[in-house]
What does this fold into?
Amino acid sequence: MRWVETTTTVRFNEVDQWGITWYGHYFAWFELARMKVLEQFSLLPEDFTRLGFIAPVVSAQCEFKKPARTNDTIRIRAHLLKPQTASLTFRFEILLQNDGSLIAQGQTVQVLQRLDGTMIYKLSGTLEERVESMIQHFWPDS
Amino acid sequence: MSPREQTGLVENLKELIIGTLRLEDVGPEDIVASEPLFGEGLGLDSIDALELVVAIEREYQVEIPDAEVGRRAFASINALAEFVLEKGAGQQASDAVG
It folds into this structure.
């Protein structure tokens, strides 16, 4: 399975009074990896807007396996599931850098809308081309 | 198209929706053909719409490109049957029920 990966360090302001990462921050970390993917295919938020679309998240899910603590270096990786519909589903894993153990895994689902809010059910034009390149990256045999 | 054929298409669409969206504890008789599919009525959501669009295109070769068209097509099962017929491929599917 192909992943796009990035790393970050857990900051003091990201942990709670028990010294472990507050659960909501994991979604912001997912975002770091997702942005790294989207950047490669000119699908960053500003690119979407330029093409006349937005891609809001309609579902987000996370399972927490192990705590992350201040100053831990973590690896965040993203993988695009093969789309069956006009949507983008990313899988994420977060691992501790020092021993490679899995600390969280999750998923987000994004749908595509025109700037006026109309949801699109079929991709076309430049947006379709860029999404297709991204699919090819993660699913080279398809 | 005869009333019998139209009824066949409506029943086929109900089965398609139940099968595609893996609706548990919902039978064709639970779906009221005149009620909205989204929000009230069956209570389907935007992800369901995307899956239905793919299934309808596969079964009936009818495209629903966006929610603007979808608003009409998904207004109810009856509306969806009319939409499929209007776009020309409904005949073939309703033939299947004889």
